[in-house]
Design brief:
The longest helix is centred in the middle third of the chain and has 7 residues. The chain is mainly β and about 80 residues long. The chain has one domain. The protein is globular and about 35 Å long. The mean pLDDT is about 95. The protein has 1 helix and 7 strands. The two termini are about 15 Å apart. The strands form 2 sheets. The chain has a 4-stranded antiparallel sheet, with helices on one face. A 3-stranded antiparallel sheet has the order 2-1-7, with no helix packed on it. Strand 3 and strand 4 form a beta hairpin.
């Protein structure tokens, strides 16, 4: 399970999204790899979903960009 994604060549100057991050009156619900897209197009794509009172919706797609992925680990 992905906890955080940092998008850009230099992580210090890049944009980061993490599960639970507030976006307006919504929150990032989940960040997932679009495996079907990767199989068909051979390009890695990440999907970022938001949650609100109305449910969960796709907010952003990140494809073919350098990313650093941080996974949710439970110790």
């Amino acid at each position: 399970m992905i906890r955080k994604i940092v998008i850009g060549i230099n992580p210090k100057d890049a944009m980061a999204y993490y599960v639970g991050m507030k976006v307006g009156n919504m929150k990032v619900d989940s960040i997932v790899v679009d495996e079907k897209f990767q199989v068909v197009h051979n390009i890695r794509r990440y999907l970022i979903y938001l949650t609100s009172d109305e449910g969960v919706m796709l907010w952003k797609t990140i494809e073919d960009l350098p990313v650093v992925v941080e996974y949710n680990l439970n110790f």
